[in-house]
Amino acid sequence: MEVLVYLASHPAEVVTREELERDVWHGALVGYDAVTSTVIKLRKALQDNARQPRFIATIPKKGYQLIAPITHPEDEGKPEANTHFSSETIDETQQKPHPKPKRRASMLIAVLAGVVFFGLVWLWTTIPSGSMTQPPGNISTLPPSIVVLPFENISDDPKQEYLADGITEDIITDLSRLSNLLVIASNTSIKYKGRHVTPEEVGADLNVGFVLKGSIRQLGKSVRVNVQLVNTKTGFNTWAQRYDRNVTEVFAVQDAVTHRIVEALSVKITNREKQRQLLRATDNLKAYDFFQEGQRLFKVSTKETHVQAREMYRKAVELDSNYGRAYGAMAVTLTNDFRRGWTDTPVETLDRALVLAKQAVALDDSAPQTYWALGFVYLTRKEYDNAEQATEQAIKIAPNYADGYGLLALINSFIGQPKKAIELNDKAIRYNPYYSFEYLVTYGIAYYTMGDYDAAIAALEQGQERNPNAIHIKLPLAASYVRADRQDDAEWVVTELRALSPTASISDLEKTIPYVPELKRAFLADLRKAGLPE
Question: What distance in Å separates the CA atoms of residue 173 and residue 467, rounded to the nearest whole number?
Fold first, then answer.
């Protein structure tokens, strides 16, 4: 509050950290991050964004500037009463006279009122419905929470980026298996790759208590891994370690890091979880490299890169015939080929995917990803009970597995349980706050199935903004437009869809869309009305 008032009392000025420490902290000895932490909290309360600020702008190497409009009660109604300062247009070195005492008092009242208002808005939008009536409980009973930031590759070889990414994801997977630890998903963690952010900023952004950050450097057959576990509230290291090992021992380093995190956070683990922590997807570093390259290609998500990714997975299993995750990844690429019409032999493709997914689970039933792959194949085959059972097993193995909750939500949407789907998707995004557009597709399908077409359109339009070329967004969006009596919009979306996939048709969707029969009939009828050809 004092920092906000101080900024408001210096309109259009860039206020330095030294001035804030001198006049707000009154010269008390404080850590360098005291000002930063306070500004982060202010931005969170005001729902501001440091990269696109509306209230407080950071002026690099200088300080902070209040850029929001300031209204003075005694000037209300006058044209000049509202002043808006932009950090892009103000001369940062220009000094303004301090407000007179009377003006400063009125400004304080205005700022206090504004803070109260935004505080109430923030509480209203962030506290779940009904939670205001619940007793606060003992906060110490809440499990510790952590995000593993992408490990930095400080090797000269850019190819080692795969190894750094793989270590990051594997540590996240290992920690996600622990029921007494809240772990943020890798899809969210990757958003911080290449960005210089403090643990305090990440903690405020994701509402987590700890950040694991690290780096890896490989020189010949040697590898050095540095890791730090940082408390986001204090900014201090809870634990730090450097490992100098032979590159073939990198998997042992991952295990050691996971073990030390569990110890440092005093996480209680069950006997079953202890046994799973001892299991490793592969001990073959070359196979691991091929798998990680396949993962990179798969994320590009084109017909060509799917073929290339499968080749990488195939090379991985040639080196390690027991590499369950590689078999599961191959199954997922084949299933996507079926769903997107990228195969001339759809029945054989989906049958092959099922064989590979079952083989993945048989080889590695400790990895949630293998069960996820099996659930995904079963859903595409419209074997709903099997799909639910496999996906629930993935979540049982890894209670923090965001994609598991997301797939279970999608299954429930397609079988006509949209309320349950929305609840599951809500849970998924708790573990994956920077969720992909796929989560928005799931929301859209659930709301469409529920009959809330406005909500479906809002979710799907947001998803389309993130990925304008994804066909599986456009299908439920066109159907939702039809139900919302927005025929022109529906026809336009189908026109876009046909431009991306000229062969898209009702008959193809009849085979591939995994709705239960009665819901499928209604969905296809809406798409016919939108103009999708037979």
Answer: 26
- Average pLDDT score, the chain: 83
Nearest to 388 by CA among 411, 421, 416: 411
The residue among 367, 392, 366, 364 whose CA lies nearest residue 378 is 392
| Three-state DSSP class for residue 66 | strand
pLDDT tens readout for residues 296-315: 899 887 889 999 999 999 99
Give residue 37's pLDDT: 67
Q: What residues of the chain score a pLDDT lower than 50? A: 79-103, 105, 120-141
Count of alpha carbons within 13 angstroms of residue 13, beta-carbon side: 16
Give the separation between CA 152 and CA 258, rounded to whole angstroms: 18
Q: Are 454 and 503 in contact (CB under 8 A)?
A: no
Strands in 21-62 per DSSP E: 56-59
User: What is the set of domains in the chain, with CATH numbers?
Assistant: 2-126 (1.10.10.10), 142-277 (3.40.50.10610), 284-398 (1.25.40.10), 401-534 (1.25.40.10)
Q: What is the pTM of this model?
A: 0.68
**How many other β-carbons are positioned within 10 Å of the β-carbon of residue 194?**
8
Q: Which two tokens stand for residue 242?
A: 């450097």
Three-state DSSP state, 286: helix
Containing H/E element for 134? none
Location of structure tokens 């994956």:
432
What does each C-alpha distance from 527 to 360, 467, 513 come to in angstroms? 36, 21, 12
- In whole angstroms, what separates CA 273 from the centre of its chain? 25
Element (H, E) at 240: strand 237-246
CA 226 and chain centroid, separation: 25
